[in-house]
Amino acid sequence: MRIKKIRIGGIMIPLVSVFLGLLVGAVIMMLSHFNPIQNYINLFVGALGSPNAIGEVLRAATPLMLTALGFSVANSAGFFNVGLAGQALAGWLASVWFALTFSHLPGIILLPGSIIIGALAGAFWSGIAGFLRAYFGASEVITTIMLNYISLYGTNAIVKGSMVKSDADSTPLIPAQARLRTPFLEQLTQNSTFHWGIIISILMVLLVWFLMKKTTLGFEIRAVGMNEDASRYAGMSSKKTIISAMLISGALAGLGGAMEGLGNFQNIFVNTVLPDIGFDGMSVSLLATGNPIGIIFSALLFGILKIGGLNISINSTTPSEIVNIVIASVIFFVGANYIIRYWGAKMKLTRKNKVGDA
Amino acid sequence: MNPMTIIVTVVSATLVYSAPLIFTAIGGTFSERSGIVNVGLEGIMVMGAFSSIVFNLFMAKDFGQLTPWLGLLVGGLVGLIFSLIHAVATINWQTDHIISGTVLNLMAPALAIYLTKLIFDGKGQTNFIDPQLATASIPFLAKIPIIGQIFFTNTSIAAYLGILVAVLSWWILKYTRFGLRLRSVGEHPEAADSVGISVYRYRYYGVLISGFLGGVGGAIMAESITSNFSGSTIAGQGFMSLAAMIFGKWNPIGAMGAAIFFGFAQSLAIIGKYIPVISKIPNFWFTLAPYLITIIVLVAFVGKSRAPAADGITFVKSH
After folding, report:
1. Which helix or strand (DSSP H or E) is residue A25 part of?
2. Does B297 touch chain A (CB under 8 A)?
3. pTM of the prediction?
4. How many other C-beta atoms can be found within 10 angstroms of the C-beta atom of residue A267?
5. How far apart are CA B29 and CA B36, in angstroms?
6. A264 closest CA partner among A197, A199, A193, A196
7. Facing residues of B156 across strands?
8. Can you tell me the distance from the alpha carbon of A326 to that of A98, in angstroms, rounded to the nearest whole number?
9. Largest CB tally within 10 Å, which of A113, A205, A306, B38?
10. Rounded to whole angstroms, how far apart are CA atoms A268 and B26?
11. Residue A230 CA to its chain's centroid (Å)
12. pLDDT along chain A (358 residues), means of 10
């Protein structure tokens, strides 16, 4: 399988895609006899109507920024990292395990230690796919998909086997000094689950922007992504670059998982499905067209849709899945940007002709 | 359990679990042979599973024992319609094949559960179906001593149907005019175009066949294994089929072989506890087996196996 590099420029494509996605959602709601306008109002009120809601939106956006960054770094190198969910889960497990195992350590060591171990676990998990691709030519699309499931069943076995007491399904909460949630932020946002992780996420956005635009490694990653053969001819080690890109990508996804473990849930439990932050992060990155700053905004939008979506179902009988339909449609239009440009160019042309007639 | 019972159980469980994978993997083969990468098989299976269960729940009183078989057709048709999204996006609108396939995977569970909640008063999963996709003995063959009992008595008819479809697909792709043309647009679309073959049309055939067979695969999964529809009815089988297609080197017979092997690996997780030596191994390893084996085989045996030359590359007809 060959993956073509995605090249989309400008802010118009994401904006038009979001609009068209909301439109698809509206049509589906109308066809099923729901009021789309009232539902969308409920959505935005539910996401932005109170300090608590805003806190929840920011909390939801936090891991998405990280997994989206992870996806975009790998994508710059020409890799489609479909394994974000598995890598995030590995990071989530490792960070909670560290926090629980070394619970006697002071916060100044325990919290950074838990965060770093989460990133390392994510990097290790994606590194397997990077290594297999670099040395054996194994398609990363297939290996990361398989590693997702191994991560899901593997973490469940570890949680069940050695981290929970008797036949419980979740571990005890991590010690207070390892948590990213603080009473200060909770009071600020009327007891939302908002936590300090957002600072880490924004720092990482800036760091990745710097890495990709200003460092040699970033240049090499982009060069390999554009043309692997040419960059090898120019003396770059494509194997090394492939593995570096996948390690960074997985570390970021692992950090995203650590945010769930140390900030949102403050423990880990037996998961029946892969965590949403994987595929959602991929969608966030696609919507932001890989631009790090764009990722902040698109993660916030996803936070709004996800949190506000819950409010739709509270205030009407509309199933909350409508939000995921909207998200899938948005990504569809981002991918099909050719047709948006085509229509755009056509509209411009007709307008010009009309002006010409007048 | 005595050895004979164990063998019979292993074979029948293997066939039951491989049937959905066989159909879907062959579907993927048609799509990729025409040049369209289809990572959306998982989503297509979800739509097939959902529609066949809904059909079964509402129509069982009219069609009786025939319902599950008609349900397979319904699942296939809905899968075909759903795959149109992928066809239009990749063939006409130059969308990246992986992104479009991912959209199918994001869209299908959301849409299917949305509709489930609408149809079943807000419940996120359906009731259980009755009748299920039945097992049966194959006439004459079941009478063969030993082999008849192992392979052809109370067995999954759907799996044998899949094997039949695999052989038929191999023949179609290799020897018929349709097959040659389909392969030519996946290998060298410009050359095919220059001799007057409609690249777009044959790529549509490829994707729509994958939609139909993937939908049938999802329907078999739902009607013979889970017996209802929920968010976890299809849990990775589409991706397993994709892997089976790659192991099978984009050949229907190979894809079928790989699918049966995965079915065997999956069935071990279920029946492992009845087999003496194997029952000592923690069940967890059997759950992991298909995924681990996929990676190992991909690295060790397939290596840089060659996909159709123009697989994943958008063809734009020059004017």
Report:
1. helix A12-31
2. no
3. 0.90
4. 20
5. 10
6. A193
7. B135
8. 38
9. B38
10. 39
11. 31
12. 46 90 96 94 92 92 96 91 95 96 91 96 96 88 90 93 82 88 83 88 95 90 84 82 94 96 92 90 90 92 93 91 94 88 78 65
ipTM of the complex: 0.90
Beta bridge partner(s), residue B67: none
Q: Cβ contacts (< 8 Å) between B243 and chain A: which residues? A: 142, 145-146
3-state DSSP of A188-244: HCCCCCCCCHHHHHHHHHHHHHHHHHHCHHHHHHHHHHHCHHHHHHCCCCHHHHHHH
Quote the strand ranges of chain A, DSSP E: none
CA closest to B307 among chain A residues: A1
One DSSP character per residue, B38-85 reads -TTHHHHHHHHHHHHHHHHHHHHHHHGGGHHHHHHHHHHHHHHHHHHH
Rounded to 5°, angle at Cα A107 from A105 and A112:
100
Residue type, B236: G
* A–B CB contacts, 8 A cutoff, strictly below: 142
Q: Which domains does chain B have, with CATH numbers?
A: 3-301 (1.10.3470)
To test the contact with chain A by mutation, choose from B97, B105, B114, B266 the residue with the greatest count of A C-beta atoms within 10 A, namely B114
Q: Which region, left, alpha or beta, applies to residue A213 given φ > 0 means left and ψ of -120 to 50 means alpha?
A: alpha
